[in-house]
Design brief:
2 domains, about 40% helix, nine-stranded mixed β-sheet, about 475 residues, alpha/beta, single chain, globular, pyruvate-formate lyase- activating enzyme, binds iron/sulfur cluster, four-stranded antiparallel β-sheet
Length: about 475
């Protein structure tokens, strides 16, 4: 598939509305407030999939400087004592969850996200890994990943991470252009990035993925092309190409980005088209949403085999595992239950001191949620739906059950984003960048909202 079939500028203009990224369904903004810690305790105690290993997520919120484009849940500080206290509480939270957990504690997936996990000192990283390893049994062939900041990881640290068992690394580049880096307050040299990626390979990391962002202030076609070329010279296994979503009313740091320095809509579209063209000419495969991978990468192979999944970290090769989450804002998914931790350190510490899990939002899926979730996953991962297969698995008549959703897809079919008949849906190459627009038709909650806000809510990023 070449870039010309993936990017249709007219369609991108026409369907550039805001919408969820569907790392979960229902989306996290639908979770109920204060469901009580018992929601998660019950889910942990009544796990049905005790024969399956677990997936673990740890949120480490600290960063030493702020990147102005950032929309993550983070704490900016230079005070490294803060992370030591945080680890004390993390350990207590891990123990509370383990006490409630039914079944073996085998782990096949681990992800440390942030914030900046490598804000921790070497000693703290070793301590945290020790806490996890002493409570869980890590499978030797598992996927153990960490988000690193090349500004806080030298080659020696990369080797330490590998020794501790990490075998996948992701790191932010965003843009190598010094003018852009100044405008977003993230100064990170090509050499820093190159050295850490080289060290990761020498240390035995199986996969290194990088993030790039288009639509940043002062970005030009020429400058971003140079960034892409430099990035490709580092031979990452995966590249995430994100669109910068400027929502200063929601994300405070973005108020320091000058509107006048942002590329206009048409320039942003050109940046995206050029970037996709460059990546595809370099042999990368479009996985979905904003993700590209080398053709021999396990994500590309899983997609080809119809075995790709989507979770809070994006695309994954693992069939769905119960996910335990530790730390501020972490979201667990155990069976039909989502549970999100307190977002601020004060609330998080308060709840643990009070002797209970710091669950502040949550949701228990019903059968309809689970069905819609499966449909949306299938669209996002494999760009198609087989109505008979879904009907058989879920005991429904697809055409009758989703009559409203299918009705809504007609204009998208007429525009060429998809083909649809009585048997199923096939998302066309030029509809793939816009697949979340198609998925939105199956989102029961969004449909209910639409009557009030037909153009979509500000809380979601735009597609392009
Ligand atoms: S982008 Fe990453 S490193 Fe920068 S402030 Fe946000 S979480 Fe921290």
């Amino acid at each position: 598939m070449d870039q010309s079939s993936l990017v249709d500028r007219d369609l991108c203009r026409r369907f550039d509305i805001s919408g969820p990224r569907y790392t979960s369904y229902p989306t996290a903004d639908r979770f109920q407030s204060d469901p009580g810690p018992q929601l998660l305790v019950d889910a942990l105690q009544t796990r049905l999939t005790t024969g399956q290993p677990l997936s673990l997520y740890v949120h480490l919120p600290f960063c030493s400087t702020v990147c102005y484009y950032c929309g993550c849940n983070k704490v900016i500080t230079k005070d490294h004592n803060k992370s030591s206290r945080y680890l004390d509480y993390l350990e207590r939270e891990v123990d509370m969850q383990v006490a409630a957990l039914k079944g073996p504690r085998t782990v096949a997936q681990l992800h440390w996200g942030g914030g900046t996990p490598t804000f921790l000192s070497d000693g703290e990283i070793m301590r945290l890994m020790g806490i996890l390893r002493s409570r869980f049994d890590f499978l030797p062939e598992g996927e153990y990943s960490i988000e690193i900041d090349p500004r806080s990881v030298d080659p020696k640290r990369a080797h330490l991470l590998a020794e501790l068992g990490f075998n996948r690394m992701s790191l932010g580049i965003q843009d190598f252009d010094p003018m852009v880096q100044m405008a977003v307050n993230r100064i990170q040299t090509f050499e820093q990035t190159r050295d850490v990626m080289q060290a990761a390979r020498e240390a035995g990391f199986k996969s290194v993925s990088v993030d790039l962002i288009y639509g940043l202030p002062r970005q030009t076609l020429e400058g971003f092309r140079a960034t892409l070329e430099k990035t490709l010279s580092l031979q990452p296994d995966r590249i995430a190409l994100y669109s910068y979503a400027h929502l200063p009313q929601i994300f405070m740091p973005q108020r320091r980005i000058h509107d006048t320095e942002l590329p206009k809509a048409e320039e942003k579209l050109s940046l995206m088209a050029m970037a996709i063209d460059t990546l595809m000419k370099a042999g990368f495969v479009f996985i979905g949403m904003d993700h590209f991978a080398r053709p021999d990468d396990e994500l590309a192979l899983a997609q080809k085999a119809g075995k790709l999944h989507r979770n809070f970290q994006g695309y994954s090769t693992h069939a769905e595992l119960d996910l335990l989450a530790f730390g501020v804002s972490g979201i667990a998914k155990v069976g039909p239950v989502y549970a999100q931790n307190a977002k601020s350190l004060d609330e998080y510490y308060h709840d643990i001191d009070a002797g209970h899990l710091p669950v502040r939002r949550g949701y228990r899926m019903d059968q309809d949620d689970a069905l819609r979730r499966a449909v949306i996953q299938e669209l996002m991962c494999h760009f198609g739906l087989d109505f008979a297969a879904v009907s058989k698995t879920w005991g429904i008549d697809f055409l009758a059950y989703f009559a409203d959703a299918l009705e809504q897809l007609h204009p998208l079919a007429e525009a060429g984003l998809l083909q649809m008949d009585a048997q199923g849906i096939a998302v066309m190459p030029k509809g793939r960048l816009l697949v979340r627009i198609i998925a939105m038709a199956f989102d029961r909650y969004l449909q209910a909202d639409r009557q009030n806000a037909p153009e979509g809510r500000q809380r979601y990023s735009r597609v392009i």
